[in-house]
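If you are new to this repository, start here. Below is one unmodified record pulled from the training split, so you can see the exact layout before writing a loader.
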Amino acid sequence: MRYEKPKFRLMGDRSLLVELGDEISPAVNQSVQELFTGLDLQQPAGILELVPGYRSLLVICDPLKVSLADLEHIILNVHKNLDPSQLPEPQTVRIPAVYGGSHGPDLAEVAQYHHLTPEAVIRHHTQPTYRVYMIGFTPGYPYLGELPDAIATPRRKTPRTRVPRGSVGIAQRQSGIYSVDSPGGWQIIGWTPIRLFDPQRNPPSLLVMGDRVQFYEISAEEADQWQTEPS
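And here is the target side for that same chain:
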C-alpha cells in the first residue's frame, strides 16, 4: 500500500528513514523517486545525502545545520508539493545476455526447481520489461522487478565468494546484474558483456532508478565480439 503521508524512522543522530509504503510495487517506488527528485532539486540546507530504496528514502543530514525535527518538517513540505512531471524520462535499455553453461551456472538448477526446461526459464526471464527499483549493493548494481512467478527462486543456500562482473542473477521475484566482481548469493543464470559501471563515464552508472530493462538472448560467440556499450 502507498502511504498518503510519509512515516519516519530515526536512524541515529543524523539520518531519517522516510517510508512511503509497505510493499514493493511500482507505485510505491515511484513515490520514493518523486520525493528523491523533489529534495534533490530543492537541495534544502543541511541535507548531505539521499539514498533511495524499494519503498523508502534515507535522508542523511548535517545535525549542525538542521535538526531532525526541522528535517522532518522540510520533507513533509516537499512531499505535499510533489510534481510527477519533474521525474526524468526513463530510458529503456536492452541488455544482451548469454544464458547457461559457464556463463549461467545455476540455470539448470533453477529449471529443475520449477520443473521447467532451461529454454523455458530463458523465455520467462526475457519476457518482462523490468523496472530499475534502485541502485545498490555495489556501484551501478540494478535491482530489477518484477521477475515472473514462474521462475521466482530463493537465493542460494551458500553464497559464492566471487561472482564475475556482468553476471545476471535472480532471487525471489528480483533480477539483477553484478556490476563488479563481488561475493553474491543470487542464482546466476546468465552473463552480459555490457559494463554497467564505469568510473570514467559520465554518469558512471549505465542505469538509474526508474529506468527500464529488457533482456534478450545472445550466443557466447556474439558476447565475445560485443562492445562494452549497448547500441
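Two things worth knowing about this chain: The mean pLDDT is 94. Residues 26-42 form the longest helix (17 residues).
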